[in-house]
Amino acid sequence: MNIALSLHDVWVEYGDLVVLERIKLDIEEGSFVSIIGPSGAGKSSLLRVLLGQEAPTRGSILLDDIPLKPECEPDRGVVFQRYSVFSHLSVLDNTLFGLECAQAPLMARLFGARRRVAVAEAEEMLVAVGLGDQLHLYPSQMSGGMQQRLAIAQALIKRPRILLLDEPFGALDPGIRSDMHALITRLWSEYSLTIIMVTHDIREAFSLGTRVLALDKTRQDPHAPHRYGASVVYDIPVTKKGALTKDVSVDAGDKTSVEVVSSITVDTTNNN
């Protein structure tokens, strides 16, 4: 088992507010990890420290056994629920922008042969996400699903190893969401990605993920509700058929740990 990311006793605190506590995880290379939990459980905070937008208050995060720098680097890409596209740029230029910033950081502009190579790479990525015929459209001319495909192309153009998804399909209609599920599953396989996705949709979490993490608080203080943060209360491995493969342990904080028998199955044929 090749471990891509390791989180060792990670805490995230903002002053007196404890958001996450005692996060201990090993994330395997090539896995698709879904993160679920109630609002305020620190799901997006966990994604931010993995991206490098923030540093954990305590603990450490290792990428290939090397401490993760508190900065966004090209080995990690991110797609948010709100479409992170530039309204004044065409589809092609939106995708090309990441390559230009990386290769020409002062001017963010490529010329000559370097630009032709970058354009070809951007066009190839847009074909991969199903936008090969919309290169010269602008975001205002696109549907929500098309804009999200563009955001995915932006994230993948620099070939990250790890793709972070922060509720990327939450604003889409059910039919479009189903198409996006098929797209992200195909890209995960074709580009050998490790994906970590935050979602409020439990069905989505199990149908896409190979592993589902549930975050929640295991300790409560009614007199100081911000005193304790969320931790991983369930860590559930899932087969591609949607059935659990082995027992999972519930981290119950100060309580006695509980063993959960692997008896849950997920309806993947819409029988319910």
Give the helix/strand layout:
Layout: E1 3-14, E2 17-28, E3 32-36, H1 43-51, E4 58-63, E5 66-67, E6 76-80, H2 91-103, H3 112-128, H4 144-156, E7 162-166, H5 174-190, E8 194-198, H6 202-208, E9 211-217, E10 230-237, E11 248-250, E12 258-260
Parallel strand pairs: 3-8, 3-9, 6-7, 7-8
Antiparallel strand pairs: 1-2, 1-4, 4-5, 9-10, 11-12
Helix pairs in contact: 2-3, 2-4, 3-4
Q: Helical stretch count? A: 6
Overall, the morphology is: globular
On the 0 to 100 scale, the average pLDDT is 85
Our Rg estimate from Cα atoms comes to: 20 Å
Question: Which regions contain 5 or more consecutive residues with pLDDT less than 50?
Answer: 242-272
Largest sheet, in brief, is:
6 strands, mixed
Number of separate strands: 12
The termini sit apart by 36 Å
What is the percent of helical residues? 25-40%
The structural class is alpha/beta
The largest sheet has its strands arranged as: 6-7-8-3-9-10
| Beta-strand share of residues | 25-35%
Question: What's the SSE pattern?
Answer: EEEHEEEHHHEHEHEEEE
Write structural notes for this entry.
By secondary structure, the chain is of the alpha/beta class. The protein has a domain at 80-159. Helices cover 28% and strands 27% of the residues. It has six helices and twelve strands. The protein has helices at 43-51, 91-103, 112-128, 144-156, 174-190, 202-208; strands spanning 3-14, 17-28, 32-36, 58-63, 66-67, 76-80, 162-166, 194-198, 211-217, 230-237, 248-250, 258-260. Strands 6-7-8-3-9-10 form a six-stranded mixed sheet, sandwiched between helices. A four-stranded antiparallel sheet has the order 2-1-4-5, covered by helices on one side. The protein has a two-stranded antiparallel sheet with strand order 11-12. A hairpin with a 2-residue loop joins strand 4 and strand 5. Helix 2 packs across helix 3. It is globular. Mean pLDDT is 85; it is low at 242-272.
